[in-house]
Write a structure and sequence with these properties.
The chain is mainly alpha-helical and 219 residues long. It has one domain. The strands form two sheets. Strands 1-2-5 form a three-stranded mixed beta sheet. Helix 7 crosses helix 9. The chain is globular and about 50 Å long.
């Protein structure tokens, strides 16, 4: 993505999220999780900035019938020339869409008296649902209907641990989507024809981050 559209996306996303916080929905979610308004804004800012950062992990050989499609504006760059020439797909992790949500999930795990087995069970169920409901979209990535995982996470968290359903809903909604829709779909990346597959997707507006917040609101 060229720098100008990426900057425009960042500005629009920042305006959207700040407005959303003013309405109170995200504030309510973070309040349920025990975060102060200042900490909530810091987390959102880290997510926004991180959404523009993909950390390369490894590359996969693309299926012969689905060679990576390189956008014309990127085709001349050395890295993308290498991808096109070798027929490989770079697998990366998105900081805003994966690293930040996972880090915050670990924070919630260590700061709430949650049962490890209940966490594992909730994450596993959401992961199975996310894996089943997600679909590979050629040339784009993995698609997942927005509300399926959050609703599942909220219901499961409420059933397993009503007292701490908010943090459990965020953890299972975040890790469940990340595992089910991203990690368990890695084998499908070879068939999608995208030059780069980012775990955590587009960052801020990816299902991983928003799934956790929506799950908290529903819990």
């Amino acid at each position: 993505m060229p720098s100008s559209p990426r900057l425009l996306f960042f500005i629009l996303a920042l305006i959207f999220l700040v407005s959303f916080v003013q309405v109170g929905l995200i504030s309510i979610a973070f309040d349920k999780l025990g975060l102060s308004p200042e900490s909530a804004y810091l987390l959102l800012l880290c997510t926004l900035i991180g959404s523009m950062i993909n950390l390369p992990l490894f590359s996969l050989k693309a299926d012969s019938a689905a060679q990576p499609i390189i956008p014309p504006e990127l085709a001349g760059l050395p890295f993308f020339k290498w991808l096109s020439r070798t027929g490989r797909i770079m697998v990366a992790v998105n900081v805003g869409g994966a690293v930040v949500p996972v880090g915050f999930s670990l924070y919630l795990i260590f700061h709430n008296p949650l049962n490890p087995w209940q966490i594992a069970a909730a994450v596993a169920v959401v992961a199975i649902i996310a894996r089943t409901a997600s679909l590979p979209i050629p040339g784009v990535g993995i698609g997942l209907p927005m509300l399926i995982a959050p609703i599942a996470a909220a219901l499961i968290a409420t059933a397993i641990d009503p007292q701490y359903r908010a943090p459990l809903a965020y953890i299972s909604g975040t890790l469940g989507v990340l595992i089910g829709a991203d990690l368990l779909r890695l084998k499908d990346i070879r068939k999608m024809g995208a030059p780069i597959a980012s775990i955590g997707g587009a960052g801020t507006f990816d299902g991983v981050f928003l799934s956790g917040l929506i799950a908290v609101l529903l819990a």
